[in-house]
Amino acid sequence: MSQYSSKWIKVSEPFPHVLHIELARAPVNAFCKEFWVAYGKLFDTLVDDGYDVRAAVISSSFPKLFTAGLDLSDAAAIGSNGTETVLDNARTSLQTRKMLLAFQHAIGAPERAPFPVIVAVHGHVIGLGCDLIGVCDIRYAASNTSFAIKEVDIGLAPDIGSLAFLPKITGNQSLLRELTYTARAFSAAEAEKLGLVSKVVPGGRDEVVKEALDLAKFIAGKSPIAVSGSKHLITHSRDHSVPENLAYTGAWNAAALLTNDITDQLKATAKKEKPKFAALSVQTKLSKL
Q1: So what's the pLDDT on residue 87?
Q2: pTM over 0.85
């Protein structure tokens, strides 16, 4: 998987069709512009290449934390191009908006991927870390995890995804608002109460990563058409009314029901074997290397 690894992102395939994506920018996984650009590019490249991924796990390489959030020492990461050019307020605003939209697009890459993305967090998950995990399909936390929606403490509202995703994927608006307005730290237990994580795993990095990879391996054994379609339809349901989603699902499955995965599953079940499914798409770029 060296073709997908980069300076601060390690990519491995511990099980067939399961990728382990490790964030590895020492010392604290602070996101500079180069880091978040590479992060978004990774997912988009995997999809463009048609690599046969059926589930992915995101974690940190560092035992004590997941991420410290945004690298505030990197001017490019917070909207400055580092020059002395003076723009009027309107032009400065347009430039900043362009950067923010690109940042949002990069951090939102896991949602665009057709495969489930599971994030395994431990230690500190600060600021941008909450934006990053909110866009993932499934969130597991080690019991030693401490979260903080930290942006208010640096003088701004969260703008890379927390306020878009967390109100829709969590179930306690009162607690979410308290955590956002105060920027206070909260535990894995409180994150589970909020609905931010679906499982708290006793221990630290090794334990939560193992649980997440085991889950990814299990999901990877399912029909790629069924799992990918389910991901797409759940996301559509989040952003649309029930009647709209039902109509859309009808149109979607009118095509998806033509898959060979159904007969492959039935034949394997009859033989008491594990089914073997084709990839969602054919590799393109990699086949030319």
Answers
A1: 74
A2: yes
